[in-house]
Amino acid sequence: MKTFSKPHVAVVGATGAVGTTMLSILEERDFPIASLRLMASERSAGRIVETKWGPIVIEDLATADPSGIDIALFSAGGARSKQYAPKFADAGVAVIDNSSAFRMDDDVPLVVAGVNDAAITSHKGIVANPNCTTMALLMAAGPLHDAAGLKSMIATSYQSVSGSGKTGMDELERQTEFFAEDLSALASGDWEDPGGDLYQRPIAFNVLPLAGSITDQGYTDEEWKLVNETRKILDRQDIAVEPTCVRVPVMVGHGIAASMWFDDPVSADVATEILASAPGVQVWDDSKVPTPIDSAGIDDVLVGRVRETIGFRGGISLFASGDNLRKGAALNAIELAELLLER
Amino acid sequence: MKTFSKPHVAVVGATGAVGTTMLSILEERDFPIASLRLMASERSAGRIVETKWGPIVIEDLATADPSGIDIALFSAGGARSKQYAPKFADAGVAVIDNSSAFRMDDDVPLVVAGVNDAAITSHKGIVANPNCTTMALLMAAGPLHDAAGLKSMIATSYQSVSGSGKTGMDELERQTEFFAEDLSALASGDWEDPGGDLYQRPIAFNVLPLAGSITDQGYTDEEWKLVNETRKILDRQDIAVEPTCVRVPVMVGHGIAASMWFDDPVSADVATEILASAPGVQVWDDSKVPTPIDSAGIDDVLVGRVRETIGFRGGISLFASGDNLRKGAALNAIELAELLLER
């Protein structure tokens, strides 16, 4: 594995919700940077962004030359990753890709920093960042799996609109204003449809039991990610995962309710101890349950409601909440970059 | 069982969220009423409510004489039900109680109209209306249980604030206005706490993975209701139920994600057929998934995302959404009253 002490870094998709978060986290963490380049689509090219490393002109990804870049943090959507990440990798760049484009490729490690760090060493130019919902879940499931062997899991999500990018946040804001004019209409069912570009039904003051698009067997791509990414990250193909992904009217912060069963059943007390000592995890007790807005803007994933299952005995149920733009995306990408730095 | 052709009716708790919904549903359904009395706490006593049956002065429940009432619809909270429902029953009134006070009493039938109607015949003065979340879930689980025998279920809720009454709706409205001033603060984590009377954390733009109060084994009273009421309504004590109850920023409409396993496994197609022909249920396909605001203001419970489980094979996963004030409370109570009417 190629490592770097002070790398030349590029952020690709620098103007998106995750890209801008990447920039602030690079600044916050004093990430050692020899030079920083920002890239985005043609639409944003030419714009100047003020950074800790001076003003930077956004380059057009389509024409940018990757030569000289050591690490590129990609968050420009799956299509652009598919098109440009291999080109960057061929030019010797270590690409950390936040899209789903390469996550299930056999020669691309899929890494939750703090959970399966060792997997990154096998990369051949591209490292994949897991899906934001998987990330929050795995921060809790990973340490428990290490201790007890995860056999099966039911996971039901409460995903914020920023998981759909800035468009999602704008849609929630606009629809909230629309409905706020007359909230009583929502109770009577006499509401007018505020319209929306992104979601098939209104998301403000509502929940949408469909995140992503239906792909196979009635499950969405988001749901299949929970299944397949969990198995790959925990390196166990026979983990049974039953997923339901639901969008909720929250700006930032993905919640996930999960029940898990293990090879060696653990008590709630033991599970709580394991989680409390896991890196990047805070356990909150029932007096201040972990909620999405409490997890927004912080690095740690919050876990609470840790309890022994009462149906299907022998398992653990819990609720986890994490900032989908930070640990769920930008922060984990930068933690992966840090794993690539010489120590 | 005593039945009535045109009963003298009382609505107890007539000024609350459920009580006012009871009044509108009585009007909508042309419920045959000989006389209508409205009762509430001392605070509301003396107020005049305009109804289809003329203006009615609200009586103080504490001093009201139940004589002459045939059916009383109680939705005044558990404490008042405990205190006054037996007094009404002793006076010969058939009490339909929306609180949790008597639900688990052996001689009180717990009935979801359309699911276990026959149980009502055994009442001894008090019939209990199930919890709003149980109701939405059982409208889907009941018909499937009849066909295939429900063995076990994982249920994860998305409960609206009106489940906490008008206070919950006011709190969501006030906090929404508070946060709407600067939604970007929610993304950065730099938000000020809007304060709240009801919920331990803000509910606007957030989800709270704790609905009700923790009682036993780390589960809340709301969660235990899902377990115990399901078993009683479906008359099968060995059904395994793993519940998680979460409050969401929705005004009216409870959603619930559930995975169910049966004695005789059914396919998604068969399950969909069963649900589509069940009374009070609409099956919505993936092009218009069932959401809480779609279910607000209507009588039917919406069911969608019906699919065969991919983890723990052989089950059915689905999402149900129902108006917690209507089918989840007022409507079911009135349907139970209709069961008491002479046919």
Class of the largest domain in chain A, according to the CATH hierarchy? Alpha Beta
Q: Report the total helices of chain A.
A: 9
Round the mean pLDDT of chain A to the nearest integer and report it. 96
Return residue spans of chain A where pLDDT drops below 50 for at least 5 consecutive residues.
none
As for the CATH topology of the largest domain in chain A, it is: Dihydrodipicolinate Reductase, domain 2
Can you lay out the helices and strands and say which pair or pack?
The structure is a homodimer of 343-residue chains.
Chain A: E1 8-12, H1 17-28, E2 35-40, E3 48-51, E4 54-57, E5 59-60, E6 71-74, H2 78-90, E7 94-97, E8 126-128, H3 132-148, E9 150-158, H4 166-180, H5 184-188, E10 214-216, E11 219-220, H6 221-233, E12 240-244, E13 254-262, H7 268-276, E14 281-283, H8 292-295, E15 301-308, E16 315-322, H9 326-340
Structure description:
2 copies of one chain form a homodimer. Chain A is α/β, with parallel strands linked by helices and 343 residues long. Chain A folds into 2 domains: 134 residues, Rossmann fold, CATH 3.40.50.720; 161 residues, Dihydrodipicolinate Reductase, domain 2 (2-Layer Sandwich). Chain A has 9 helices and 16 strands. In chain A, strands 5-2-1-6-7-8 form a 6-stranded parallel sheet, sandwiched between helices. Chain A has a 6-stranded mixed sheet with strand order 12-9-13-16-15-14. Chain A has a two-stranded antiparallel sheet with strand order 3-4. In chain A, strand 15 and strand 16 form a beta hairpin. The model of chain A has no long low-confidence stretch (mean pLDDT 96). Chains A and B meet through strand 9, helix 4, helix 5, strand 12 and strand 13 of A and strand 9, helix 4, helix 5, strand 12 and strand 13 of B.
